[in-house]
Amino acid sequence: MSFEASYSGIGRLDRLSYRDTIIHRLDPRAKVVATMLFAIAVVSFPKYEVLSLLPFFLFPILIGALGDIPPGFIARKVVAVSPFAVFVGIFNPLFDPGVVSIAPGVPVSAGWVSFAAILVKFALTISAALLLIATTSFPGICRGLRRLGLPALFVSQLLFLYRYLFVLMEETMRVVRARDMRSFGVRGTGVRVFVRIVGTLFLRTVERAERIYGAMLARGFRGEVPSMRREALRLSDAFFVAAAGSFFVLCRFVPVPQMLGRLVGGLAG
Amino acid sequence: MSHHLLEFRDVRFRYPDGTEALKGVSFLITHGEAVGIVGANGAGKSTLLLHMNGYLLPTSGSVTVGDVPLRKESRQEIRRKVGVVFQNPDDQLFMPTVFDDVAFGPLNLGLPPDRVRERVHEALRRVGALALADKPPHHLSGGEKSAVAIATIIAMEPDILVMDEPAASLDPKSRRSVIGLLNSFAHSKIVASHDLDLILDVCARCLVIRDGAIVADGAAPEILSDATLLAENNLELPLTLQGRPPWKGTRR
Amino acid sequence: MHMADALLSPAVGGTFWAGTIGAIGYASKKLKDHLDDRKIPLMGVLGAFIFASQMINFTIPGTGSSGHLGGGMILTILLGPHAAFLVMASVLTVQALFFADGGLLALGCNIWNLGIYPCFVAYPLIYRPLAGDGRSAQRILVASLASGIVGLQMGAFSVVLETLLSGKTALPFGTFLLMMQPIHLAIGIVEGFVTAGVINYVRAARPEILDSSASSEPLAAGIPLRNVLIGFIALAVVTGGALSWFASVHPDGLEWSIKRVTGKGELPDQEHGLPATLKSLQEKTAFLPEYGFKPPANEPKAKEETPSWPAVDAGTSLSGLIGGVLVLAMALGIGWAIRAFRGKKII
Question: Rounded to two decimals, what is the model's pTM?
Fold first, then answer.
């Protein structure tokens, strides 16, 4: 992905996260915990299980719909980061020659089934992670992580990183643009030029950090980044986690699609 | 309480690399004054500002704020009295949201949460940025960033407001609103800038600094209309004093 | 080489999360006592710097393909291991959220793979001894190359282990290793050259930055070898414990990868541990016998008949397929209805 494409993708997710919907208003802790439970439930299925995973799609679909997040945007991002999982998974059909039948008289390689399971799990977990950041502002997630017990120093790192992410990406993008504009062909994009760009950007970053430190001192900084936001968990947050959690447990242990299929089959027959 | 607010007496400063940035600077600023500081690039403006809240300490000479002489131990007290708005709002606004940023100073002053909330609300209201409280700084326009940067300082209720290029790289309309904002404060103000029209609009008095020394100190309209003095300092007459003929082109 | 949720089992993901959280806590605690205030904004802004630099592509000499910076070693040399580890952890966290690189469960593995090895292994054991006082450009180059290569090799090996322990892939251990290690050797060499280039550039322009990084964090000058060894022993114990636990609890992955490697597999007893619990749970939840619930996929009986792959059974009948399609359609329908109700554009 080109620099500008990644940059605009991050910017769009970031802007989405400041919307105001029923999902955005939930406490960040509730969403972090629910997304984590979701990931654990999804990956806990054995490698040949595909159908039982399908009900889990309801979670990202609901979050996306209630949070008013464009589904195409999330889908494109999921596809964009899929290469490693696809790369590893594609070997399953090659190395797993067993045969299973997915319907009477329709034999399929077991490797393809486990490959499909990897892809479905991938789509589920990645879209859930993207929807978490699309419906929760990053500072909100950081406050949540702090309240969940992560060290203050680490959380303040995350916050500073986020604050200067866009500033430095813009600065870097200007430099990269200037490089690409004048490096007809490969010469200008080699390692030597790259090292100099990174070195210069590093020195500028250090100088910026010194100016920021000055601005912090001017406002009484004495080694601790203060925080005063202490939102209490509301009933709706607890309800959200409880509902999501029970849904995951239900779908993990009850094969909903099979039951539904038989029910429909029974009615038709 | 003494009459003067900020006094520099024969302040000299040498950077560790040997550069002598201030060579005996003396001036006195009294309550309620608005003072502009102008000079060429590298004349020593920034070094001078960094002495006002004790980021730098003079190599020799003295800086006094109210009754408090600037020393290593008194820096925290000085920083309560002197609020400095640095040039680049991206360096000034380092917290993830506008609210957290404006609250940073008051929280460090040890105020209780209710008082902090009041201060943040009042400071944002005064700069017209109340609606921005929950936004992250990178979602703000340049003019909004400048306004919020000023709010971060006035939330600490300093005795004196020091600003380095408060309107640099702003579009004309945003620049105009920053000027309006500065004029709406009854605070004592010190403004360093190359924007001489801004100095003329905001400050009654003006200091000219060259090679680490004050070369002129007087009423801003007089200093800023002295073409020879300005030219010696790589400056030009403010546009409002240049009297150019009106533009005759066609508008499309 | 970001690890992905889809390839993980909860136990492997959880184990590495525990290790990563422990390391974050340890590094934060170490820094709290020694950190110069100045470094608080510096670390944060450097995180943003690494993030932005990773997005710049450059051409790898002789190949024409493009490379990207990792940055773990650069950070460690400039900030010392504890600060650098926290910065790497925050960079990877932001990537996991904004790029969805791997997902949330895999984040623990990714911080471990890309943070622990460069900061706490390659730097103290390889870079410091080789670079000496850090005043010779040649020594910096040699040290950066060696530490860059070792750090990435360990990271890649970690990815292989995590994937195989999780048992979601059919890739044989040897094949996977043969694919991952050489690729990461190449990446490590490039990373080493870039690291040395940047460090030497900074050293020439502002030598005091490197001097202060070594002195202001006393531990940067060298973590005592004893501590490193203790760390490794602890790691070995944890890994060994995790391995044996897997062998008893989730035989699927391990047994299978052992079999692929050695050519013969031994089936551990499956009538205890998690599978047995799940099985009994599933039997209890099969409250509608007329729907003809089948036992779970990794049923030991099925395995004995067809030892090369576990039989796929429960979810593969025709009615299951129909049900799956229906469930998906319903989920999509609900999403569509919500959006339509909001007057927004449809899925």
Answer: 0.81
